[in-house]
Amino acid sequence: MNILLIYPKYPDSFWSFKHALRFISKKAAIPPLGLITVSAMLPESWQKKLVDMNTNELYDQDIIWADFVFLSAMYIQRESVDRVIDRCLKNKVKIVAGGPLFTQDYLNYPQIDHFVLNEAEITLPPFVQDIENKKEPERIYQTTEYADITKTPVPDYHLLALQHYATMSLQITRGCPFACDFCEITSLLGHKVRMKDTSQVLHEMDALYKLNWRGTVAVVDDNFIGNKREIKENLLPAMKQWMKDHKYPFLFTSQVSINLADDEELLSEMVKAGFGSAFIGIETPDEISLHSCHKVQNENRDMLGAVKKIQQAGIDVSAGFIIGFDSDTQTIFQRQTDFIQQSGIVSAMVGLLNAPKNTKLYQRLEAENRLTVDATGSNTDGSMNFVPAMDEHILMNGYKSVIQSIYAVKPYYQRLRMFLRNYQPRKARPKKVGFAGVKALLKTVIVIGMINRGRFEYWKMLAWTLFRRPALFMDSMTYVVYGYHYRKVYGLNRTHE
Q1: Strand partners, 7
Q2: What is the percent of the chain with per-residue pLDDT over 90, rounded to a whole number?
Q3: Which of 11, 299, 339, 477 has the fewest C-beta atoms lying within 10 Å of its C-beta?
Q4: What is the pLDDT of residue 437?
Q5: How far apart are alpha carbons 213 and 107 in whole angstroms?
């Protein structure tokens, strides 16, 4: 079999980092880990080719070459998905679709030949077996069971053009012990946290190392600390030793829950193992909203203090925030702004509440007849898929005011300084800037320091960092570039004609 694995294009969004990537001459932030993991599950005798449309063009000859096109996507990639499907139909090549978008929404794609849904460790083998036995494959392969990920193979990282990516990725756990009613993770992957064996994780790290990857590796788990005991007692010590033996080639990022701040030993061990940043779902400073959406891990705690504790331990915190809960009043706009500014969370993803399919929130709003259109998959594009309790005009204007208040040039740099004052990274080996880093810095000087509005604030930020926190200069300049991207995404960046 000739298998073409296609990853559709991302639109310009908060997490695409499209405008930031240009400074470092990269094409995509992160690779399609799901697809290259599926690839590793296919028979070795099958020929496999990957086209990530975020890094490479998709040509008709690629499609014609294939016996099957394997297509995986998330909601936010739907426009690109439709174009890929049209091209496959035109070239009369069969499509096998899976991943989050199709698992939740396969009924809307009658033109697709076969679906391999849920977790591929369970549903892909029967499809392969049917092909190998020269039997006509079923249209739908799905399951209600959860996979044993200790049997998941090392992803086919060799299919990637590594030079095009800012970050590599690996997955260690699936599932989340919490049950936030707006989150589809538990409906897709369950409440029980399933973990790969420590040896598996080290083998994946070995695979990246042998391909000469050096730099950031994103641990894409929905909650890396969902099984604290196993992480702390077995995985982190092994990762720490591996990193030491290999002279610290990686810097890990992760997603965690705010209760990381409650465990100083875990915090310390993560930093020693090479974790430098974490995304946390903070959502809202409003206790009533937290309670109503069952965000129990955030309730009744000093969240501002928790964030600062994590930063001081050496982990940079980015976070998600939500506006549009039924209990939100008009005070929420200023409260969200104040919390974000005081926290020093530079990458603050503020979105309007949406209800993904198969979540408790979706079911409740459906029963209340409040659903409107399907969610876009982007919670930062100013759209909602239900009728909010607050007047929609007031809500939209308030949301825009929060974005303006945190991403306009001056408040953004104020928050960056707040972060740099509080951030205490582990005493580490000096970072090598290299030619690529110098080139990126020169681009910031020209684009942000000379062409773009807000250039005076840029020079103030650069000088402040050199005099106050010179050891964090590269961190500071990275966030300067992020700020440029965020202003572009939100339409706040204007240049002189």
Answers
A1: 52
A2: 89
A3: 299
A4: 82
A5: 40
Pair 134, 192 in one domain:
no
Average pLDDT over all residues of the chain: 94
Please give the model's pTM, rounded to 2 decimal places: 0.94
pLDDT at 358: 86
Both 11 and 137 in one domain: the answer is: yes
pLDDT tens-digit readout, 162-179: 999 999 999 999 999 998
Q: What angle do CA 179, 181, 183 make, to 5 degrees?
A: 80
CATH value at residue 40: 3.40.50.280
Contact 38, 70 (CB under 8 A): yes
Does any domain span residue 211? yes
Rounded Cα distance, 288 and 328, in Å: 8
Residues pairing with 351 in the sheet = 322
The predicted pLDDT at position 206 comes to 98
Q: Does residue 148 sit within a domain?
A: no
Q: Are 442 and 329 within one domain?
A: no
19 phi/psi in degrees, rounded to 5:
-80, -25
- Cα 258 to Cα 274: distance, rounded to the nearest angstrom: 19
| H/E element, 294 | none
**For 382-405, what is each residue's pLDDT tens digit?**
889 999 999 999 999 999 999 999
- Quote the CA–CA distance of 242 and 427 in Å, as a whole number: 18
Evaluate whether 39 touches 104 at the Cβ level (below 8 Å).
Answer: no
* Containing structural domain, residue 44: 2-141
Q: Could you tell me which of 26, 91, 75 has the C-alpha nearest to residue 52?
A: 26
Main-chain dihedrals φ then ψ at residue 351, nearest 5 degrees: -130, 160
